[in-house]
Amino acid sequence: MYIDSFDGSWFDHPFWRTGFLLTADRDLAKIRDSSVTAVVIDVEKGADVGPETGSAPRGHSSQAPAKPASPPMPAKARTAEPASAVQRPSGQEQDYEHASQLVLRSKREVKRMFAEVRLGRAVDAERVGALVDDIAHSVVRNPSALINLARLKSKDEYTYMHSVAVCALMINLARHLKLDEKLIRDIGMAGMLHDVGKTTVPDTILRKAGPLTDSEFEVVKRHTERGYRVLQRSNGVPDIALDVSRHHHERVDGSGYPFGLKGNDISIYSRMAAICDVYDATTSDRPYKNAWKPPEALAQMRLCEGQFDEDILSVFIQSIGIYPVGTLVRLNSGLLAIVVEERDDDFTCPVVSSFFRVSDRRRTIVQTRRVDAVFERILCAEDPADWGFDDWETLRDTALTQASRTTHRAA
Questions:
Q1: Count of the separate structural domains present in the chain
Q2: Where in this protein does the record put region Disordered (predicted)?
Q3: CATH number at residue 196
Q4: pLDDT of 307-359, one tens digit each?
C-alpha cells in the first residue's frame, strides 16, 4: 500500500518522511510498534487496489488503524527463546553496522561527486538526493550511530566526510527543531553540498599543515560563491542548498563572509549550517589542527557570543548530547568511562561503561550503568591520547557493542 501520511506528529512515527510505498514486512512492523494511531493511504498509488466491495473509491484516501486491537499475549503464554537458537544482532548493533556501511558508501559518493565537479560537470542532484534519503533514514533509526561514525575521520578524508557529517547533523537538528518534514531532504542536501566550492581550492591550501597566509585565506573564502555558482548550473538542486552553500560562513553578529550579513538576514538554514559546520570541523582532525573533544567544542561555541543563533545552538546541543556516544569521560569516582548511550531526560547523566582506574592507571572490570547525579557524576571529557590508549578505537567499539548487547538482553 502507499502511505500518504500518518496521524499526528512525524516525531511519533519511525520514518524520516511520509509519502512512500509500503512493501516490506519490517516497515509494517515498525508502524505497528510505534505510537501512531492511524495512517492515511492513497489507493491510487498503491499496488493493493482490488475489486472487493466496500473499498474506498479511487482517488480518495482511506484511514486505517496502524495497530491491531487484539489484547497482548498473557505473560504466562510467552515462551523463552531456546538456548540453542541463533543469536541475532541487537537493534543497536544492526544500526551501527548499517551506519558503518553507509558511511563508507557516502565517502565514495562524495569523492565521485567532487571529482566530477573538478572536471567542470554539474552536480547529479538525483544521485545526491538518493544518498541523503538513506542518511536521513539512518539518522531516524539511530542518530548517534551515523553522526558519531561520520565524526571519526582521518585528516586525509576530512574534505569528503565533512560533507557527510554536516548532512547528518543538519537532518538531526531539523528534526529537533520540528521543521516541516517535507523540507528534510532539501536540508540534508544543503548539508551534503555546502562545501562543494572547496573543489576549486588547491589541495596545497586545503592540506596545508600550518596557518594560512592572508592571500591563501582569501582563496578559501571564495569557495562559498564558487560553490553557489556550481549548484546554480546543476539541475534539481533545491533553493535551500543554494542558500546554504553561499551563506554558511555568515555569522549572526555580522562578522562572517562573504557579505557580512546579520541576524535574520541569514536564513534559518544557513544559521543551522553554520553551527553544524563549525561543530564537525572543530571535532575533526584536520591537517592544521587536532580535534577538540565534543564537549570542548560546544563550550567554545557557547563562548563565541553573538556569532551563532543562541536558540538554534541550544537545540543543537540537545540534539547531540553534551557527552556524545563514544566520548571518553572522567568520573568523580576516579574511573575513566566511555559514553555508550545518551539519555533524553538528562544529558548530563548518560549511560557509561567504566573500564580504567585513574589512581594506578590500571584497567578494571567493565561496568555499564547510568551515571547517577546523586552518587556519581562526570567531571570532564578526556583525550584518549593523554592516557596512552593506542587501541582506543577498538576499546570504544567494543564498549558500544557490549553495551548494546546488555541493553538488548535486558529489554
A1: 3
A2: 47-99
A3: 1.10.3210.10
A4: 999 999 999 998 888 788 888 999 999 999 999 887 767 777 889 999 999 99
- Do residues 130 and 192 make contact, with C-beta atoms less than 8 angstroms apart? no
For 377, other C-beta atoms within 10 Å of its C-beta total 14
Question: What is d(CA 161, CA 106) in angstroms, rounded to the nearest whole number?
Answer: 8
Query: What nine digits make up the cell of 138?
Result: 539512518
Indicate whether 75 belongs to any domain.
no
Q: What are phi and psi of 368, to 5 degrees?
A: -110, 125
Separation between Cα atoms, residue 403 and residue 394, nearest integer Å? 14
**Distance of alpha carbon 292 from alpha carbon 297, whole angstroms:** 6
Residue 363 has pLDDT above 60, yes or no: yes
Q: What's 371-407 look like in SS3? A: CCCCCCCEEEECCHHHHCCCCHHHHHHHHHHHHHHHH
Decide: 305 and 324 in contact? Cβ < 8 Å: no
| 403, three cell numbers | 553495551
Q: What is the per-residue pLDDT across 81-103, written as a single tens digit (0 to 9) for each? A: 333 333 334 556 777 788 889 99
Regarding whether 20 and 152 lie in a shared domain, the answer is no
The grid coordinates of residue 315 equal 537545540
- Using 50, 70 and 90 to split pLDDT, how confident is the model at 275? very high
Give a yes or no: residue 231 inside a domain.
yes
Q: How confident is the model at residue 281 (pLDDT cuts 50, 70, 90)?
A: very high
Residue pair 157/190 in contact by the 8 Å Cβ criterion: no
Cell of 201: 581550492
Per-residue model confidence as pLDDT tens digits over 149-190:
887 777 778 888 999 999 999 999 999 999 998 899 999 999
Q: How far apart are CA 209 and CA 198, in angstroms?
A: 17
Count CA atoms within 13 Å of residue 334 on its CB side. Answer: 8
